[in-house]
Amino acid sequence: METLLELRNIVKRFGDVIANDHVNLEVRKGEIHGLLGENGAGKTTLMNVLYGIYQPDEGEIIFEGKKVRFKSPKDAISAGIGMVHQHFMLVPRMNVLQNLVLGYRTPSDPLVDVRWVEEKVRKLSRRYGIDIALYEVVMNLSVGEEQRVEILKALFRDVKLLILDEPTAVLTPKEVETLFSALKAMTKSGLTIIFITHKLKEALSVTDRITVLRKGKNVGTVETKKTNERELARMMIGREVVMDIQKPKIEFGSEILKVQDLWVKDDRGQDAVKGVSFSIRSGEIFGVAGVSGNGQKELEEAIAGLRKPFRGKIALDGKDITNLGVAGRKDIAYIPEDRIGVGLAPSLSVMENLFMKDFKNFKKGLTLDFKSMEEEARKLIEEFSVKTPSVHAPASTLSGGNIQRLILAREFSRNPKVIIASQPTRGLDVAGIDYVRRRLIESAEKGCAVLLISEDLDEIFQLSDRIAVMYEGEIRGIIPREKADYETVGYLMAGGMEVAA
Amino acid sequence: MRVDVEAVITSGFIISLLASSIRAGTPLLFATLGEIVTERSGILNLGLEGIMITGAFTGFAVSFLTGNPWLGIVLAGFAGMALAFVHAFFSVTLKANQSITGLMLVLLGLGITGFFGRDYIGQVATYIDPIEIPVLSSIPVVGEIVFRHDPLVYLALLLAFVIWFLLFRTRYGLEIIASGENPEAADSLGVDVDRIRYLSTMLGGFLVGIGGAYLSLAYAKLWTEGMTAGRGWICLALVIFSGWMPQRAILGAYLFGGLDVLSFKLQAVGFGVSYHLLAMVPYVVTIIFLLFSVIRKREAFGAPASLGLPYIRGKRY
Ligand SMILES: Nc1ncnc2c1ncn2[C@@H]1O[C@H](COP(=O)(O)OP(=O)(O)OP(=O)(O)O)[C@@H](O)[C@H]1O
Ligand SMILES: [Mg+2]
């Protein structure tokens, strides 16, 4: 097979951080090339260099046999490269069609030839099996649909090389399947794909070859057929990892969190949580499985105090907290699904983000004791291994996985009684996932009540003591872990009715 | 405080009020349309008051010196564009604080026109006069209200639709809107955000300049120092009022123009409400609308999501 793209000795620095350290990468025409690496390994940076968003400090790019320099994404696009970014780049207030043709010259340019676009999209949809309502406003789309728009954006421009930066991190298992069959169809018609992921299983099932990055360096490219999970994990992390966690037997204590007949509305004013009741005891991990968008977000926000229920009761340690705000729920730690929007203030420093709920603890007269704050921050960063150049760096400059560690550091260090963890390992690498899960178990051991909300069934089964399934705002059955199996839970997730447990 | 109801009606009070509302609203419409284009691209130009007064002065001076008011209108547009260019340079190229540059333009415009305008106070230039559109203007009532204005009134109306078309039916429009909503997304599709923002700001400045010239050459027909009298600020409010939609700006501009006229007219027929109280009305209306636009933030009528924020490629968030 001939070579489509070659990156030679790419170096990219951000201040003192070397995000890419003399990286070489060779991608062949028509293949799906996996790019694997831990959080912060430099995958996104490397692709941004290729796409013209960053200029490399050193190195060169050879595309279709010619040396190229992309001064902006515009150059990359016209060379035939498309990219679906880790954080989607859509204009929420425009509709799908407008997002698709943005910056594109249709035959009747400068007018937008709507019929022509419709026709072209119809052809693409048919060819790759990607369906989308062209006139829906992007604001109203689900994440899976948003991603389809992003992919169509690239296909619409007749790209030769498509970069997908962690496309599966936000998808449900069913959506992943659809995506993979679309990718296969694309390579059949001659497209080349670079596929970034953390999930070894996915990389193994869909790629032809895999390149692993570690700490900004290329540690090797392997044929997918000739490798396995163990080898890839070792390449990524640099040592052997044990990937199964044994959950110890924990004695449950008293009832800590009690939710009774809770009703919550979503942003659009529709009932999203419809009469949910459950309780969690100290030391217990209560797993809520379900395809996202079935009211989980509203449920967790109501318990965290970010959203007011219009009926029902939430009690913490026997005290009614239904009408308290976030500040009144100090004992509840919240690891939100939307880490950047809800979890962090991206423009504030790592330190400020760590203590934004606890500045009071550092009062020194009228000012704050910045010295001890810094010290404390360093300790936490060390303990939770957040990779950051300094405690003063803006949180927004951290990689996706490190943002999650930062939130964990803040929430876990506050000694909560209840932990709400929503998709806590989404987008994390193997080591990160392992770490978060151990932490959750540890907290339960210390007597926390843990509410785990996840789409990842492995995670639910590995951690939970009892498993509830949420479907269309209701809880369809609460099953003790010993009696639960994937089949039953999957059946309930898909809308099946409650079975006698 | 007795109002002679009969006199109000028989004197054609309503008719003349409506007709002059349209005239008084026209400079507001030009400037509001200009600012809508600018803000849609993500640039907040608070300097309207300064650009308008510069346009008013430039238009008047050119017409006075050349005898050609239309040349005055065009050059006023270019003067506005020049000031807008300064704003764009600071906000787009230097990524400076947009509010501060905008406010600087206000001071600059008022200062320069105050200085150079002294010799023109009390002078008479050639003005732009109303035309009577054949046939239509003789329709009773409607003819008087709608069809006896100067050509710029109709041009402004037409412009509202042209800009609507530009924004929502052309590639440029999508690029402008995307630059104002999510410049990163626009950039990732090869849209030159900086260029779009420059052009939108300059086009906006051009229209605001014309709005100013309309004041001195067609509405008030004179030049005095500071004659814009806060209209620039009103237009900023009008942009919000119209939800960044050009077609809604028409209604807003005429309404606010009407409020302006009303205070004079009411006094003329012996309705003794304080002028200052009436002059407050547009602002009160704006505040109410602002409240609404905050409440309905996520809906179609909100401000462009990246309004006032500089865009730097590769800078996270
Ligand atoms: N704009 C930036 N400014 C400063 N540092 C940055 C910037 N972008 C990335 N970095 C740093 O470069 C390193 C690599 O980040 P990158 O986003 O490429 O990682 P990644 O492999 O994509 O990780 P993840 O899987 O978590 O998305 C990280 O240490 C990150 O903090
Ligand atoms: Mg990344």
CATH topology annotation of chain B: ABC transporter involved in vitamin B12 uptake, BtuC
Q: Quick one: how many beta strands of chain B?
A: 0
Assigned CATH class of the largest domain in chain A: Alpha Beta
Helix content of chain A: 25-40%
Q: Find the count of extended strands of chain A (DSSP E, 2+ residues).
A: 22
The termini of chain A sit apart by: 55 Å
* CATH topology-level name of the largest domain in chain A: Rossmann fold
Subunit arrangement of the protein: heterodimer
Number of helix segments of chain B?
13
Description:
- The complex is a heterodimer of chains A (501) and B (317).
- Chain A has three domains: 3-237, Rossmann fold (3-Layer(aba) Sandwich); 252-331 and 417-501, 3-Layer(aba) Sandwich (Rossmann fold); 334-415, no CATH class.
- Helix content of chain A is 32%, strand content 27%.
- Chain A is built from 16 helices and 22 strands.
- The longest helix of chain A has 16 residues, at 173-188.
- The mean pLDDT of chain A is 88.
- Chain B is an all-alpha fold and 317 residues long.
- Helices cover 69% and strands 0% of the residues of chain B.
- The model of chain B has no long low-confidence stretch (mean pLDDT 89).
- The chains are: A alpha/beta (501), B mainly alpha (317).
- Chain A binds chain B through residues 48, 51, 53-54, 72-74, 77-78, 83, 85, 89-94, 98-99, 101-106, 109-112, 139, 153, 267, 340, 346-347, 394, 396-397, and chain B through 169-172, 174-175, 177-178, 181-182, 184-192, 298, 300, 302, 305, 313-314, 316-317.
- The structure holds adenosine-5'-triphosphate and magnesium ion.
- Residues 14, 17, 19, 37, 39-45, 86, 387, 397-401 of chain A line the site of adenosine-5'-triphosphate (ATP).
